[in-house]
Amino acid sequence: MKIQAINGFKDILPGNVIRWQYIERCARDIFERFGMQEIRMPIMEKTELFVRSIGEATDVVEKEMYTFIDKGITMRPEATASIMRAFIEHGLHVQQPVQRLYTIGPMFRHERPQKGRLRQFHQLDAEIIGAVEPRIDAELIAMGQMLLDELGLKTSLEINSLGCPVCRPPFKARLITYLEQSIEHLCEDCKRRTHTNPLRVLDCKKPSCRALVVEAPSMLEALCPECDQHFQEVKEALQALRVPFQINRFMVRGLDYYTRTTFEFLTSDLGAQAAVGAGGRYDGLIEQLGGPPLSGIGFAMGMERIALLMEQDTESHLPAASMDIFLAALGSETLAPCSLLAHLLRQQGIRAAIDYSGRSLKAQLKQAGRVNARFTLIVGVDEWSRQEGILRDMTNQVQQPFDMSGTPEEQSLRLKQLLQTTIH
Ligand code: ATP
Ligand code: MG
Predict the structure, then answer these.
(1) How far apart are alpha carbons 201 and 175 in whole angstroms?
(2) How far is the centre of ligand 2, averaged over its atoms, from the C-alpha of 195 (Å)?
(3) CA triple 165-46-39, angle to 5 deg
(4) 323-419 has the same fold as 14-167+223-312
(5) Residue to probe by mutation, ligand 1, list 114, 118, 123, 147, most atoms within 8 Å of CB
(6) From atom 7 of ligand 1, which residue's Cα is the shortest distance away?
């Protein structure tokens, strides 16, 4: 019996890892342009952290967490709570009042696996802590948009405001009253949500719920003057940065901690999985977790969904993995000098491949093609006795003699120089 990976947990194979590395490189590069610093946290936390931050009546806490019940610990379903825990624990704000942090790594949620939805998935997560200005919201959103643009993805941006502890509770009460009037038309989940988490009803995907929600009161019309002004200024700041967006007054987020600005980067190319990334402001969260009264805003992007979109897009070409040189050692006496030469080249930063099987030249050239070698150095017994090799350019099959006299170090330096002048 073969043992297979767990359902919803996936290998990322070398051909695909190239794409993942590219996404990560792009993300780090862009995040660092915005002054963000990387932070890495453990993948397990005390369960209490997620219950207190994400909220008890959310899908994530109610049914998606991987929890070791006897140990009181949970595999993180998202990164924001852990970042805030680390931020508070290490008093990061003391050194620098505004912290810009990002992290990249796996998250765990027990959901139904499907395309773009896994049980172990990966997020790019960025947070700005300690700043309240609407321009910060716009800057962070613009950073997410810049990443998607540079990756060549076509997504749309939707924004909304969820208000604050002043204006949300009265709105919630109004919404409950509205929903109760037609509660028999709601789906089973939404019947329950009407009292546990009524905002969630607003983004239910079931047609019957959607029909009711169209007429529901809107949070945007219920914002207090401060939240309303904040939202106006976020919109203006986004326009100033030339970031196109649409307002979606039904957008709510799955996690309880959000206040004011929320946003989603959406795609129509992944079937039911519409969100590539999402985020928002969480002004009360740090205090709620026992930290200083600081506000924050962040987003998380799903790396599987980004990688899938890039894979589907036939126009986005990635450079294939390649070797600078392949050493074809023909005959047993050339094996030792060639293996040392390969080693010295690698020490000097050259990507060198070598085949120890002693196979025919034809077979080795084929192997050089498979590993995408730019050059092949052919070292046959006769040539070797004359201290010579043949350097073959794999792009045009042109061959030239290569001087193999001198010490192995001299050979490797000569070869390195030749490769560098020929490639560039
Ligand atoms: P969805 O509505 O798709 O369930 P979400 O609102 O639960 O998403 P967030 O918690 O905001 O998602 O996470 C941010 C991003 O992480 C999502 O936009 C998505 O790209 C990605 N993501 C979330 N859950 C999964 C998952 N199970 N598998 C793969 N990616 C995911
Ligand atoms: Mg979800």
Answers:
(1) 10
(2) 20
(3) 80
(4) no
(5) 123
(6) 254
**What does the domain layout of the chain look like in residue ranges?**
14-167+223-312, 323-419
Distance 172 CA to ligand 1 centre (A): 25
CATH number for the domain running over 14-167+223-312: 3.30.930.10
Residue 256, pLDDT score: 77
Tell whether the torsion through CA atoms of 242, 128, 309 and 272 is positive or negative: negative
For the chain, the 3-state helix, strand and coil shares in percent, each to the nearest 5, are: 45, 20, 35
- pLDDT (mean) for 21-40: 97
Give me the sheet containing 373-379, strands edge to edge: 352-354, 323-329, 373-379, 388-393, 399-403
The mean pLDDT of the chain is 94
* Centre of ligand 1 from the C-alpha of residue 275, in Å: 7
Q: Which residue has the higher pLDDT, 400 or 424?
A: 400
Atom of ligand 1 nearest to the CA of 78: 10
Give residue-wise pLDDT tens across range 321-352: 789 999 999 989 999 999 999 999 999 999 99
By three-state DSSP, how is residue 378 classified? strand
Q: Global pTM?
A: 0.91
CA of 274 to the centre of ligand 1 (A): 9
Report which bound ligand comes closest to the CA of 77.
1
Query: What pLDDT, on the 0 to 100 scale, is given for residue 182?
Result: 87
User: Ligand 1 mean position to 254 CA, how many Å?
Assistant: 9
303 Cα: distance to centroid of ligand 1 (angstroms): 10
Quote the CATH superfamily of domain 323-419: Anticodon-binding domain (3.40.50.800)
Could you give the CA distance from residue 134 to residue 299 in angstroms, rounded to a whole number?
15
Q: What is the pLDDT of residues 101-148, one digit of tens each?
A: 999 999 999 999 999 999 999 999 999 999 999 999 999 999 999 999
Which listed ligand is nearest to 255 at the C-alpha? 1
Instruction: Give the binding-site residues of ligand 1, using a 6 Å CB cut-off.
Output: 78, 109, 111, 116-118, 121, 123, 254, 273, 275-278, 300-302, 304-305
Distant-in-sequence, close-in-space partners of 149: CB < 8 Å, separation ≥ 6: none
At 181, the amino acid letter reads Q
Of the bound ligands, which one is closest to the alpha carbon of residue 257?
1
